[in-house]
Amino acid sequence: MEYWGWLNNMKQVELDKKAYNFAKQYLLNLQIVSVTPKLLDKYLCLSEITPRPDSLAKIYKSLLESAQNANMKAGVIGKAIGGVEKLKPVLCGFDPPVVITKFEGWEQVLELIEKELKPAGKIRKTSRSLWPQYCKTILSGASFLSEFATADEFYSWVDFFDQDDRARPALPMLLSQEINGLGFPLSCDFLKELGYVNFAKPDVHLKEIFKSIGLCSSEVKDYEVFKAIVRVAKNVSTTPYDVDKLFWLIGSGYFYDDKHIGNNGKIGSHKKDFITQAQKALNVTLPAI
Considering the entire predicted model, what is its pTM? Predict the structure, then answer.
C-alpha cells in the first residue's frame, strides 16, 4: 500500500507540473500582442514593493472590493455606482467603527446609497437580493474590523494563521462566518489581494479547469480546490497566488492592468479550448459520470 501511495503521489506531482507548464505556454501560444513571458510574470508574481493597505479604512475598502467579486455582483454593485471607491462618503471614509455607529440596519445603508449615489439599474430590496446582501456585508465587515485597533494588529492576527500550513485554511472559513456574504472563495480573494500569496480563490474558472484536467475530483468543493491549488503550487515551487492567477487568466481572459491588450484588456475566455487541448496534451482520462 505504501508503494502504491508513493506511486500515485509521484503521478500527481508530474501531472501538476505538466499542467502548470502547459497552461503558461498555452497563454503565450495564443500570440496575443503584448502577452509575453515578462507580462505574465507581472501578473503571476505579486510585487513585494506593492504596499499593503496601511490603515483599517483601506483594509475595509479592500474587503468590500473582494465582496463584490462574485457572479453578477461586480456588475450590479460596483458598476452601478462607478466603483467601490464611490462608497467612501456614504461609509464615513471607510471608517469601520464610525460605520457601525451610524447605521442600525442594512435598510439604512441602502437608503443612503440610493440617495447619495443613485445607482444605475433596478434595485431589488428583498432580503436575499444582491444590494441588500451587499449592505449586510458592509455592516458585518465593519463590525468585524472594528475588533482591531490598527491595521498592524489585524495583520498580526492574519499572520498567526498564515505561518502554519495546517491553520491557514481555517482563516477564510472563519472570515466567511464572521462577515455576511463573503464566503470561503471571497475570503481567500480578500486575503490574497492584501498580499498573502499563500491564499488562492477557488472560483468558477479554477473549479471547472481543475476538475476537467484531473487536478481535483469531480466534486470541486471550495476547500478541496483550495487545497489542490496549494498542492500544485508546492509541486512547481511557486505560490498559490501564482497558480490562481495563471488559470484565472485563461478562464477570464482579462488582463486588467493592461487596457491596450485585446478589447480594453479583455481577450475573451479560452477555458473550453484550453481544457480540450490540455486533456489531450496531458493524456487525461476522466471517469464516466
Answer: 0.86
Domain ranges of the chain: 13-46+200-281, 56-193
DSSP notation for 208-273: HHHHHTTSS-TT--HHHHHHHHHHHHHHTTS-HHHHHHHHHHHHH-B-TT-TTTTBTTB----HHH
Q: How far apart are CA 145 and CA 41, in angstroms?
A: 33
**Position 41 pLDDT exceeds 60:** yes
| Spatial contact of 81 and 117, defined as CB atoms under 8 Å apart | yes
Q: Determine the 3-state secondary structure of 156 from DSSP.
A: helix
Taking phi over 0 as left and psi of -120 to 50 as alpha, with beta for the rest, 13 belongs to alpha
Dihedral (Cα; 212, 214, 219, 223), 10-degree rounding = -110
Residue 3 — pLDDT band, cuts 50, 70, 90?
very low
Residue 65 has pLDDT above 80, yes or no: yes
Separation of alpha carbons 46 and 195, rounded Å = 7
Residue 89 burial (10 A CB sphere; 0-12, 13-18, 19+): exposed
